[in-house]
Amino acid sequence: MVKPLTEEEVNSKTDPSVNKQWDETTPKEEQFKELYKIVDGIKSSLLTTNRPGVGPVARSMAVAKRVGPDFLYLANIHSQKFEDLKNDKTVQITFQNSSNQDWVSITGKATTTDNADPRIKKVYSKGVNAWFGDLGDGVHTGMPDDPRMTLIEVKADYIAYWKTTSSSIGFVKEVAQASLTGQVADTGVNRQLFDKDIQAARDAES
Question: What is the predicted pLDDT for the residue at 183?
């Protein structure tokens, strides 16, 4: 439902489209459930690292496994992103559902492992080898025991996400009405999850 812009929002230099959609009443447990539903339905994310002399560098990566609020990725250790992570462990993961505009932004710290990590075999799935290739030497096969195959584990520190509360048609109508009337569109809920919330969710998974 569209909402009027208030003088207080202007005077306090508040972004009304954000302010009107903050959700601070839904229980955290429910917020995490809805977060997981969004990311599990998208599968692929943008993983952004920080490269010296360049800045943020993003690439699309499929999530190998989500463990509560944390994420595992299978990756080739020869990738330049591993050099990025040697310099800066801080990363950002983003998801967006283009059909309904739901989005998730996760800031966290990444750790990397080598091919001895037993979790690689557990999260490996058919088709991953297509991104590694097979040299034909019996070693660099693109299979779980390929020495190039490693894990990147991202532990979340801060999560922000937006979840639509409108249908696709309702979203369009809401935006059109707001544009025509000078009001502010209110098509979903904005949520923030901080370190203590994330740790509680992590503990609940263990």
Answer: 61
